[in-house]
Design a protein that fits this description.
4-stranded antiparallel β-sheet, 25 helices, about 50% helix, about 15% strand, disordered N terminus
Length: about 725
């Protein structure tokens, strides 16, 4: 550690400034849980604190770098690796992850990067920020720029996301005042060459700063707050960004087609007839993409989710259990050029994705929790088991839900108006099972409210999106209907979730068409077919789709059928026979996930791996050589650079470079040694007089403020001779 050149007061001030920089940086991390899929930032805060601490210790790079690297891999291992650290299998897993993600980076398929790699990149960013903030706050003492960036960041996310930045801005303001005040004290100490405050003078230096912080904070809290003078810019900006022309009927937010951001629902929906994809299928299907589970009062976000990885095309995305009868079917999807989505659209009961002849399987990610499949392709075929739900089974399903399902899918905001729950109770009064309760709410919404895509209001800051639709506007489109049904079911403790995708679209021809996967109907799906609906959870059955939007039909198959007790009893009788049938299949298929492990090794060819390893090794060796010889090429560069400079500021920089060069060569200035004493020592060591002459001119510029540019012209040759002599 290199603190010997600092006085205790200056060291204490540096600690305060650096601690405040860390607290400001935390204000950048805290909002991540609000507008990203990050559910817990604790691990990032811990690593950031670790990196900040290591940077402040000012350890040599060959000590600090391994420490930070060890901390990084320690956290990654705990989060994502089940293997023994540093074991052969651990290195193999890490290598495969890096190969896949590097390939995704080069092919610009950002969505296919794995959670481990995204976490790695973010930890590296924290590493770099710890050093950058140390340089800004401690070395350069340029604190204002980062403070300004912090306020811009907080105000932008407060305006355009669900994050409430009120208290974050207040905290940042208090921290900023402390930083600026303490930095000013440090500047005074440096300017006056004071290394220690006189005893008994601490209060005289610190009390004014504390008074300014407290007084300004109290004034800010106490002063009256006026309503905004200008209208909210968010709806206008969103409508400009999300609509084709930036215009369209209806006030507020305007939406078009399928979108990712559902944090702020409401506003008009533009009926754009642009074709997104064509589908060959046997009958009308809803094309599912994803679900969202957290209702915020203004829209929907996703809680943190884990992604699985596959390459063989087989995938179990069935949302229902084996107690549901199914029919095996296939369908093919082809996107229009320029309309490709980064996620797969698929029917209910998906079991596999085939990419077609001549195409190798991609390494893709999917989430069983949200239904997302990250596989950006313009065409593929899906295999699925189409479910046939029975009314008797749904009505006789048990009422006890798994704990994790209950906790996740009955979430509601604390400020949801009570009248939403009261309405749900009134609608479902007299129903004695989950299915009939859900159908009563579905029928109520579909018959009492008007469907329109125009003049749909956006809730204000104090309004709830569902409450506004149910009791105020009484009109809207699919997002209003589906969100209202999910929220009302949740008020009754029935697990439900919000689903997004596309409706069946329009059948282009009434006759069957011969395709490579059999005779199918051709469907055209447009932007206007983007849709949202509802899934309700039934124990022993799974997630069942419902359609509350007026004018839309639930495309799922329902029939009378057996009760859930009959299904379970019949399955119990046939358990032994089914197990015998499954044994040969299991022996042939092998352990779950084995295909993925076997295929993953061939993701990049051996030649490509060797090429990457060679290039990486050469770059590493060159970097090490450049770093170890940095003063040689820096001396060469600076000699040529300052030959052309004639201003006084260049002389100061050139002189400081000479000091760094001497220190690197083992002729370091001792603590407490004046520049004149140091210059005399250097001249005695090297047998010259140039250092004293250069120092004399430097002191005239710094301490006497003599700005004689003619002297620097005379000193250039002396400075250059000293640099050459030191490097020889």
């Amino acid at each position: 550690m290199r603190f010997k050149s600092l006085g205790y007061d200056q060291l204490f001030i540096n600690i305060i400034i650096y601690l405040c920089s860390f607290l400001l940086f935390l204000e950048w991390l805290k909002p991540l849980t609000e507008f990203t899929d990050t559910s817990n930032i604790g691990i990032f805060v811990f690593y950031a604190a670790f990196c900040f601490f290591i940077s402040f210790l000012r350890l040599r790079w060959w000590i600090s770098t391994p420490l930070k690297l060890f901390g990084l891999f320690f956290l990654l291992n705990g989060l994502y690796f089940a293997a023994v650290p540093l074991s052969p299998y651990w290195f193999q897993t890490l290598s495969l992850e890096i190969q896949h993600n590097v390939s995704a980076l080069f092919s610009q398929q950002w969505w296919s990067m794995t959670p481990m790699f995204r976490t790695l990149l973010f930890l590296i960013l924290l590493w770099l920020m710890s050093y950058l903030l140390y340089y800004w706050f401690i070395v350069a003492k340029k604190t204002f720029f980062f403070i300004l960036l912090t306020f811009i960041y907080l105000t932008v996310i407060d305006t355009f996301t669900m994050f409430d930045g009120t208290y974050a801005i207040i905290r940042s303001f208090i921290i900023a005042i402390i930083v600026l005040g303490v930095s000013n004290i440090y500047s005074v100490l440096q300017r006056e060459h004071i290394h220690r405050l006189p005893k008994g003078k601490y209060a005289a230096w610190m009390l004014p700063l504390l008074f300014v912080v407290l007084f300004s904070s109290l004034v800010g809290f106490a002063t009256p707050k006026y309503e905004p003078i200008w209208p909210d810019p968010v709806p206008f900006l969103k409508s400009t960004a999300e609509s084709v022309s930036g215009t369209g009927p209806g006030p507020g937010v305007k939406k078009i087609g399928y979108g990712e951001d559902d944090t702020q629902l409401g506003g008009a929906f533009i009926q754009d007839e642009t074709v997104v994809f064509y589908a060959y299928a046997e009958e009308d299907q809803y094309w599912r993409i994803e679900t969202k589970d957290v209702y915020t009062g203004k829209g929907w976000v996703r809680s943190d989710t884990d992604y699985s990885q596959r390459r063989d095309g087989n995938i179990d995305m069935r949302t229902f259990t084996n107690n549901v009868d199914t029919d095996s079917k296939t369908a093919s999807i082809t996107f229009e050029e320029g309309q490709e989505l980064p996620k797969v659209v698929y029917p209910y009961g998906l079991t596999g994705i085939d990419l077609g002849p001549g195409m190798s399987a991609n390494y893709f990610q999917y989430s069983p929790d949200t239904g997302e499949i990250l596989l950006p392709l313009n065409s593929y075929t899906v295999r699925f088991e189409q479910p046939n739900f029975t009314f008797n089974a749904l009505r006789s399903a048990p009422e006890t839900d798994p704990r994790e399902i209950k906790e996740q899918f009955t979430q509601l905001p604390d400020d949801l108006p009570d009248r939403v729950r009261e309405l749900a109770l009134d609608i479902s009064d007299g129903e004695d099972n989950r299915y009939d309760i859900a159908k009563s709410i579905e029928r109520y919404l579909g018959s009492r409210y008007s469907y329109t895509t125009k003049d749909v209001p956006v809730p204000t800051e104090d309004e709830d999106y569902v409450d506004q639709f149910l009791f105020e506007s009484l009109k809207g489109y699919c997002d209003n209907f589906s969100s209202s049904m999910v929220v009302m079911l949740r008020t009754l403790d029935i697990p439900a979730r919000w689903v997004k995708g596309f409706t069946a679209g329009e059948r282009v021809e009434q006759n069957l068409v011969e395709t490579p996967i059999g005779e199918k109907y051709l469907y055209e799906i447009q932007n206007a077919n983007a849709h949202s609906w509802v899934e309700v959870y039934f124990p022993e059955i799974g997630w069942v789709p419902f359609e509350p939007t007026r004018g839309f039909i639930n495309e799922a198959n329902f029939s009378s059928g057996r009760s859930i007790d009959d299904i379970l009893n019949n399955d119990d009788d046939n358990n032994e026979e089914e197990e015998e049938e499954k044994k040969p299949e299991q022996e042939e298929a092998g352990p779950a996930g084995q295909d993925d492990q076997n295929d993953s090794g061939s993701f990049l060819s051996e030649k490509a791996v060797k090429t990457i390893a060679i290039v990486g090794s050469v770059l590493l060796v060159l970097s090490i050589i450049l770093y170890l010889n940095r003063y040689k090429w820096l001396a060469w560069y600076n000699v040529r650079k300052y030959r052309k400079k004639e201003d006084i500021q260049s002389y100061r920089k050139a002189y400081r470079f000479l000091l760094a060069l001497l220190s690197h060569k083992g002729m370091k200035k001792n603590n407490g040694q004046t520049l004149r004493e140091y210059a005399r020592q250097i001249d005695q060591t090297l047998g010259t007089i140039e250092m004293q002459r250069l120092t004399h001119e430097y002191e005239r510029i710094v301490y006497r403020n003599e700005q004689d540019e003619g002297q620097w012209k005379k000193m250039k040759d002396l400075w250059e001779q000293m640099v050459i002599r030191v490097m020889s």
